[in-house]
Amino acid sequence: MDDQNSATSPQLPLLEVRELRAEFCVAGGVGASKGSKDATGARANCVLRAVDGVNVQLHDGEILGLVGESGSGKTVFSLALLRLIQPPGRIAGGQILWEGRDLLHLSEADVRKVRGREMAMIFQNPQLSLNPVRTIGSQLSAVLRLHHAISPHQAREQSAHWLREVGVPDPERVLEAYPHELSGGLCQRVMIAMALSCRSKLLIADEPTAALDVTIQAQIMDLLLELRQRYGMAILLVSHDLGLIARMCDRIAVMYLGRIVEVAAATELYDSPLHPYTKALLRAVPVPDPHHREKLQVLEGEPPSQLRLPHGSCRFLGRCPEAVDRCRTTDPPLIAVNGTTHEVACVHYGALGEAGLVEVKDGEKQGVDPSSPPARNVIWGDQESEASR
Ligand SMILES: Nc1ncnc2c1ncn2[C@@H]1O[C@H](COP(=O)(O)OP(=O)(O)OP(=O)(O)O)[C@@H](O)[C@H]1O
Ligand code: SF4
Ligand SMILES: [Mg+2]
Fold it and tell me: How confident is the model at residue 382 (pLDDT cuts 50, 70, 90)?
């Protein structure tokens, strides 16, 4: 973990997201009573709130981790930052302030200039992100020429340069190759080279190694750390996995049911997690010590449907081992704990005023749901040379 750009950074954020909401129009969502139909007799279309009031900041050169269970809204949030939500989805409100400009107020043409040139995104399956019928060279050159006034020859030279920068051992061969001829790890390096070649200030990496061999995962993560160091590129790193995020990030934001429920510097979040959901995620992270035989604990219960979110109560209520009566009548906002940069959305902390921490009375605690989706684990294996693949 590296706190050089920790939550205490005083400069104006590169990216500031305020109350961002993104939703999908689906059958039977918010506002549809059971069995409701529209005028044609079809099931009424309603709203699934995938991102429901997210507030977060990202600073120059910072690596912010975004973690949460499957379906918590991490990908929808990431796509929303680039205004890439497609119908039946839409951004329903909020602000995305990119160096002070609200991207939600820009024309599509202006957003295209930001996308790729200033912010880029890489995905879980890099092979699917590349055009299967064009060589890597033609795709890299096309991206470079879209953003810079350069000749085809210069684009080719620069493409080879950026492939070298991301550790591709034989750039000339890779430039001639088609995506299916390369390993997943090499394709991900190509995607990262594309982002770098445009000198993007922010790389959004959505589970960038989830589809790769465990032996390659660490190499890609090391590359991202090196590039941040060398080019000062900020990274939003999305993952299910707190183990991986902890190794990489300056700060961590924890997402639950479309909202950030806790955000803090990585070391702080690890040493002193406050939100019961974060604590549960951490208890599910394996300790890399063969003598440590403590059983991993999984998070109990399932989140409520995003089609019918609870109103006026905490969203974690049904699964929370620390719940008290007022959790039923309070939807806690994300607030700083005792004036620090550690923010949490839970009635026990800094809740409901300036009083600071609120004591939990043992007698008030309630039980949890027995059903339990297992948390995914990450194993950092020995690294083997990707170049030999
Ligand atoms: N195209 C879509 N149409 C309808 N609902 C969608 C669509 N895309 C995402 N959703 C819903 O939005 C919610 C958030 O999904 P999202 O993909 O952002 O989750 P995630 O946190 O990225 O999960 P994972 O860790 O599995 O990638 C989920 O309930 C999902 O079903
Ligand atoms: S507000 Fe209550 S239910 Fe929600 S996380 Fe805190 S203790 Fe648990
Ligand atoms: Mg996702």
Answer: very low
The Cα diameter of the chain in Å comes to: 73
- The span from the CA of 373 to the CA of 337, in Å, is 30
Q: What is the pLDDT of residues 219-251, one digit of tens each?
A: 999 999 999 999 999 999 999 888 889 889 999
- Beta strands 234-239 and 202-206 are parallel
**Cβ 24 under 6 angstroms from ligand 2:** no
Going by the DSSP 8-state scheme, the letter that residue 67 receives in this structure is: E
- In this structure, which amino acid lies at residue 337? V
Residue 119 carries which side chain, given as an amino acid letter? Answer: M
Spell 295-310 as b/e; 16+ CB within 10 A means b: eeeebbbebeebbebe
Residues 294-303: tens digit of each pLDDT: 555 566 677 7
Q: Is the CB of 26 under 6 A from ligand 1?
A: yes
Residue nearest ligand 1's atom 3 by CA: 24
**Predicted local confidence at residue 145, as pLDDT:** 93
Q: Which atom of ligand 1 is nearest to the CA of 71?
A: 19
Instruction: State how far Cα 129 lies from the chain centre.
Output: 18
